[in-house]
Every structure is written in structure tokens, then in C-alpha cells.
Specification:
This protein is α+β, with helices and mostly antiparallel strands and 216 residues long. The chain contains five helices and eleven strands; from the N terminus they run βββαββββββββαααα. Strands 2, 4, 6, 7, 9, 10 and 11 form a seven-stranded mixed β-sheet that branches. A hairpin with a 4-residue loop joins strand 9 and strand 10. It is globular and about 50 Å long.
Length: 216
């Protein structure tokens, strides 16, 4: 039977300078896949529920923070992410921040990941094959000049925007709260600067949402 979710993993940097520790962002995206003709007719049909992503870290990797979800510490060097449900055709994403120790030049394994979920209508538990992610460590100085992945940076800033908006929704007097107003303004400025660099109009629209929150 076809898998109900299709995951994609993208590093903020897939090549890093050897021997130097640094922080990295992993963008995790997953899409709800349709299961046959009947599911295609019902675009809002739930195709997977109680989605969990288990992550095992190699010894040179340390987890820092999750954006868009909560990470639970598991046995050994592992994390458990509970990611709810997804509908057919829908897409979701989160970002995870790690720090890696300086490593010798070469390709080194970083993370091992496995998805588990319940597949309606029989609610049978499904597991996707265990997947490993690696990173290339290099002594070539051209690695230092390579910028981060824009796709990852964009999604990270969108998740930060959602977090700031959630905080704003909990404070009716946000216009008189200087710390919250500053957060809204700084995040809006970040999105606008990223939009100016990339020409991405979605970021412009999201920045406008934050600026309107400041005016409300």
C-alpha cells in the first residue's frame, strides 16, 4: 500500500568547513498523499493521524531547538516529535536546530530518522523505512563563501512569524507592550529584508501581516 506521507529533508548547509563546530537547521517537510480515486475526490480526507517522527543523533550532533513543534527527549540520543494529522494534498513543515562538532574532512552520518503514523480508515500503524542523513565536511575554502539554503531560511522565518503571532494573540494590549511590539517589528523587518534579497512576494505579504498587527 502506498505511504500516506511523503517527507523531504533539507539542511541549511549540506557542506560545512571541517574541524569547526557550527549550528545547522534541518527543514522537515511532509505532504499528505492521496490513496486512490476516492481519496482524490475528497481533498480534505485525513490520510495519516498520530504522526510521529523519531530521530537518533550521532555523537557529534547536539539538539538545540525545535520550531513549529515540541521535541521530547527519548531513550539514548533520540528525539520524539508528535506531529498530529495531515489531510490529502496538504503540506506541513517544521525546523530543527542542531550544533555539530568539528569533524575531519569527509562525509559523516548525522541523523537517523523514522516516521510512524496511523493510516485511516482501519487505523493500522505504519512505519516508513529508517532513513539516514549525512553531511559533508570539507577543507576547501569555497565552502566558507557558500550562503545558507534560502528555502530553509524562508521556512524558518515563517515559523518564527507564526510564533510571534501566537504570542500577540494572547496579549490584547500588545500595542502597549514594548517587548512584544519590538518582537513583531523585528520579525516583520527580517521577512522584508529576506524578501528584498530573494524577490519572494510571499514574504512581503507575511511581513505586511505583522506590520498590521502593530497598527491594530
Amino acid at each position: 500500500m502506498q505511504a500516506s506521507i511523503q517527507p523531504i529533508f533539507t539542511w541549511s548547509r549540506s557542506r560545512i568547513f571541517a574541524g569547526v563546530s557550527r549550528n545547522l537547521i534541518l527543514l522537515v517537510e511532509w505532504k499528505g498523499m492521496s490513496q486512490g480515486d476516492e481519496a482524490r475526490k475528497k481533498s480534505r480526507k485525513v490520510v495519516a493521524r498520530e504522526i510521529e517522527l523519531r530521530i537518533w543523533l550521532e555523537s557529534h550532533f547536539t539538539f538545540i531547538k525545535a520550531y513549529g513543534c515540541t521535541a521530547e527527549a527519548g531513550e539514548g540520543r533520540s528525539l520524539l516529535l508528535r506531529l498530529g494529522k495531515i489531510h490529502s494534498g496538504a503540506s506541513k513543515f517544521i525546523c530543527l536546530e542542531f550544533t555539530t562538532e568539528g569533524m575531519p574532512a569527509g562525509i559523516h552520518e548525522a541523523l537517523w530518522l523514522q516516521w510512524q503514523y496511523k493510516q485511516p480508515p482501519v487505523e493500522r500503524i505504519k512505519e516508513l523505512p529508517l532513513q539516514k542523513l549525512g553531511l559533508e565536511y570539507s577543507h576547501h575554502t569555497d565552502v566558507l563563501a557558500i550562503g545558507g539554503n534560502f528555502h530553509v531560511e524562508k521556512h524558518l522565518e515563517l515559523l518564527k512569524m507564526i510564533k510571534v503571532l501566537e504570542e500577540a494573540s494572547l496579549h490584547r494590549n500588545r500595542s502597549t507592550d514594548p517587548m512584544l511590539a519590538d518582537k513583531l517589528r523585528r520579525q516583520a523587518d527580517k521577512l522584508l529584508l529576506l524578501a528584498a534579497r530573494s524577490g519572494d512576494m510571499q514574504l512581503v505579504k507575511e511581513a505586511e501581516v505583522l506590520y498590521k498587527q502593530l497598527e491594530a
